[in-house]
Every structure is written in structure tokens, then in C-alpha cells.
Amino acid sequence: MAVPVVNLANTSPESKKLTDYDYDVAAKKLGCDSAAIKAIVSVESSGNGFLKDGRPIVRFESHKFSKYTKGKFDASNPTISTPTMIVRKSKGPEDEYSLYEQAKALDEAAAMNSCSWGMFQIMGFNFAMCSYSTVQAFVADMHISEGKQLLAFTGFVISRKLVDSLKTKNWAKFAEGYNGKEYKKYNYDTRIAQAYQNFNIG
Are 61 and 195 in contact (CB under 8 A)? Predict the structure, then answer.
């Protein structure tokens, strides 16, 4: 099924940083309010799509790398390839990139699929839901701008049929569709709800 093309021609896809206007245009296209989108960004990436050196924010998932490489590197590279999900405390962006680069040296596509990218922290394996034909094309755009990251987000929300829950602010339903069935374990719904209230004051 083809993913609907969202026309955000009035945003600034080549600009690194989003403006309030960009959020407003995207919100209008999705039929929600901009505070809802900002709340998601706040929870997912603390409001930033890029590190100071210009690289997009990433979070590497070792169990996904194992999945996409069929466990080929579980024994030889247990730091970056694990058969089950391991809850680890991130040591920071440099550590995330170190894990990603190690995995990329073994299998580029699997490494890209195994990271969440940018300000909306969309997993690479969701590239098709964001209207991309390959994960490489998706990752390339994640390096360009927050505008591109916003475009990917809108495509993903539409593909996952999360527009209604975003409109109605049904954060539990949105979090389940966006973050997975274990969303409650990390309080995604309550964190988004609180962030929304913070942005919606007044």
C-alpha cells in the first residue's frame, strides 16, 4: 500500500532547525495542534534533532541488530548484537554512535535499521512507513534537517494510523502505536501528556 504523500511545502526542509511556523503547518496537515507534536519531540529527543557537530541524534538497539542479521554476530560481538532486548543506560551520544559505527562496519543496512533517528526517534526499519524506498535514503534525509525529520514523522503517523489518537490526545493509544506495547514500562503516555500540558499553557 502506498504511503500518503503529505504536502509540507511551506515548511523549511533544508533548514536544520524547525520554527514554530513549521510545527504549525505540520499540525494543520495532521489536524492536531502544534503543542502535541512539540510534546512528542520533547519526550523523544528533548527537542533536538541534531548533536552540536551536526550529526542526527541516534539510539542504537542491539536486539534489533541481532534480528536483522539473524544472530550472526551475537557470539562474536555481544556488545552490539543481543538475541533479546537489553535495557541499558545510555552513556551519551558518542557511545550511541560508537555502537552504531561498530554495527555499520559489519552490516550497514542492519545497523541503520537498528537505530532510532532524529528528533522523533523513528526506528530505521520503519523507513517504508515514512515514504522511503530504502533505509539508506531515510538515513540520508535524517542527516539533512529537522524539516526532513518532520516530514518522516508525518508519514509515519499516517501510515501507523495514529492521526486520530494524536488529534484526540489519546496518549495511551498513541504511545502504544508509536513506541510499542511496552510503552507503559517507560511511561511514554504520561510523559507526553505532561509535556503537552507544559506546551499548552495559556
Answer: no
CA distances to 102, 160, 161, 200 from 177, rounded to whole Å, are 30, 7, 8, 23
The span from the CA of 4 to the CA of 1, in Å, is 9
β strands within the chain, DSSP E? 58-60, 115-117, 122-123
Low-confidence ranges of the chain (pLDDT < 70): 1-15, 201-202
Q: CA–CA separation, 100 vs 55, rounded Å?
A: 12
Question: In this structure, what C-alpha cell is assigned to residue 152?
Answer: 518522516
pLDDT digits (tens, 9 = 90+) for 78-136: 999 999 988 777 778 889 999 999 999 999 999 999 999 999 999 999 999 999 999 99
